[in-house]
Every structure is written in structure tokens, then in C-alpha cells.
Design a protein that fits this description.
The protein has about 290 residues and is mainly α. The protein contains 14 helices and no strands. Helix 7 runs antiparallel to helix 11, helix 8 packs across helix 9 and helix 9 runs antiparallel to helix 10. The longest helix is centred in the C-terminal third of the chain and has 30 residues. About 5% of the residues have low confidence.
């Protein structure tokens, strides 16, 4: 919420960087803790205390975060004759008097429920894959256990990078256009997955899915700010983020109930395709 308030003209990049940092965090924390435990032979209690001290330092750093000037968005949104109409439409909407809805008014709108459903359809295929990624690398690609574990780490990096990549693209292409492209990439990759028996091709397809999955996490905070305003975004996005929780519960459960990888992949592809059609319908609604 703080990031998109400070950068209203680059909301996708700002939110993508923040949630991308969340995704990259384990790559810093995990080796640090492992060194403390195995190299310096600290016990787990001491390692946790060190992490606690780091958390206190983070709280101190966060105390320097301030709210931007009230007129920042209006200042940045002043029209420039050098910009084309298409570029103005693609960037975050410049409004002199933004509509700021609280969570109760937000959930009473059709826009909220459209975004809620699109968030579920976007996140669920990626969550279905990530929950079983190691087994998929071993069964489809023939990788050994150690290599499969390393590739899961690569998938996590693609997830984190996708949050920044797609969030940035949305600042130029527009949120809905970017969302439609992401759904298309996810659907195609999921349809190709059962046939991806060549190791390199399998890794490429899974990385595409990981990138688009991360992209939803980078894109929807900007969607929330664009649609319902910045004033109450912290709580509004927390409510919208419940959609991710629904996907996180349903996705792996559905995968486990199917007992067939191919059927699960085709179901995930169908969900992504349905999401793409839903995003197209939502774009038509917004144009009308």
C-alpha cells in the first residue's frame, strides 16, 4: 500500500518490486540460517533470536516510511502533449478526485467480485503446480531428487521475478491487457505440460507457469488501487487477497483428488482459459 501510494504512475512496478522481495526473501534467509546452524554451529534458539533482532531493525527502518503528499498523484498525472492517448489509457488512471471506497462499499461492487474470481482463476493453476513441483520434475523430466530440489528453487525465483516483470509490463500495456496475456501464457503452458517429457522443455514450460503465477501477485495490488482508490488500500487489498487463500486451499486439494497428473494439468489449463475469457468479458464491461 505504501509503495503504490508513493508511485501512483508506476503502481505495477512498485507493487511488483515489493511482492518480488517477499518471493526472493527465502534465498537470503535460508542460506543465512543454514550457515548459522552448520558453519558456526549455533543452536536453533540462537538463530531465532538473531532473526528476532533483524526483525526489530526492520521495524526501525519501517518507521521512516511516510505518507506521500496528498497532491502527488495529481501532480504526476498532469497531461503531456507528447504522450499518446493509448499510453495515457495504459498507465494508472490520472484522476483529480479519485474514488476511495472502504471495504464495505468495495465488496458491494461488481468490480470487486469480478477481480475476486479472476484472482482465484489466476492463482489456482500455479498453486496446483507449485504444491507438486518436485514430484513433477522427477516423474515427467526424470530428474533425480537433488536436481529436482534445485529446480524447485529455480521455480521460486521465476515466481519472484514474475511479480516484478508482469507488474512492470502492466504499467505500459494496461492491467487488463496484461492479465489477458498472462492467462493465455498460463493456459498454453499447462496444456503443453503433459507432453513436456524432454527435460529442457519441461523446465521452460514450468518456469513460464511460475512466472505468470507470480505475476498475479504483482498485478492485483495495482488492480485494487486502480479500482478502489489508495486511501483504504491496505484493508481493501487484504479483503481482495482472500481470493488467493481460496485458491491456495482449493488448488492442491483438487490436484490431490484427481489422482491423474494429465487430468490435473488439463483442468488447470481450463481454469486459466476460463480466466482469460473472464478478463476479456470484464474489459468489455469496463469499456461499455
Amino acid at each position: 500500500a505504501s509503495a503504490v501510494r508513493w508511485f501512483p504512475d508506476r503502481r505495477g512496478l512498485a507493487s511488483g518490486l515489493v511482492v518480488g522481495a517477499l518471493g526472493f526473501g527465502p534465498f537470503l534467509i535460508a542460506p543465512f540460517c543454514e550457515n548459522m546452524l552448520n558453519t558456526y554451529h549455533f543452536n536453533i534458539t540462537v538463530v531465532l533470536q538473531i532473526l528476532g533482532i533483524i526483525s526489530f531493525l526492520a521495524i526501525g527502518a519501517a518507521s521512516f516510511i511516510t505518507s506521500p503528499p496528498d497532491d502527488l498523484a495529481a501532480t504526476l498525472a498532469k497531461p503531456s502533449h507528447a504522450k499518446t492517448e493509448r499510453k495515457k489509457e495504459a498507465t494508472a488512471p490520472p484522476v483529480a478526485k479519485p474514488v476511495d471506497l472502504n471495504w464495505a462499499r468495495m465488496i458491494a461492487t461488481s468490480d470487486f467480485w469480478a477481480l475476486f474470481c479472476l484472482y482465484i482463476l489466476g492463482a489456482m493453476p500455479g498453486l496446483m503446480l507449485i504444491s507438486q513441483a518436485r514430484g513433477i520434475f522427477e516423474s515427467l523430466g526424470g530428474f533425480n531428487s537433488a536436481t529436482a530440489a534445485s529446480l524447485v528453487g529455480l521455480l521460486a525465483a521465476a515466481n519472484a521475478g514474475g511479480r516484478i516483470l508482469w507488474g512492470t509490463i502492466s504499467d505500459y500495456l494496461g492491467r487488463l491487457n496484461t492479465l489477458i496475456v498472462m492467462f493465455a501464457c498460463s493456459a498454453i503452458a499447462m496444456f503443453l505440460l503433459p507432453a513436456a517429457t524432454q527435460p529442457v522443455f519441461l523446465v521452460a514450460v514450468i518456469l513460464v507457469i511460475g512466472t505468470t503465477y507470480g505475476g498475479y501477485l504483482g498485478l492485483f495490488p495495482s488492480f485494487c488501487a486502480d479500482s478502489f482508490g489508495l486511501k483504504n488500500m491496505s484493508l481493501n487489498y487484504a479483503v481482495l487477497f482472500i481470493a488467493f487463500s481460496v485458491a491456495a486451499i482449493a488448488g492442491p486439494q483438487i490436484y490431490g483428488q484427481l489422482h491423474n497428473q494429465t487430468h490435473a494439468f488439463f483442468l488447470a489449463a481450463s481454469l486459466a482459459l476460463l480466466g482469460g475469457l473472464g478478463a476479456l468479458a470484464y474489459r468489455l464491461k469496463k469499456k461499455r
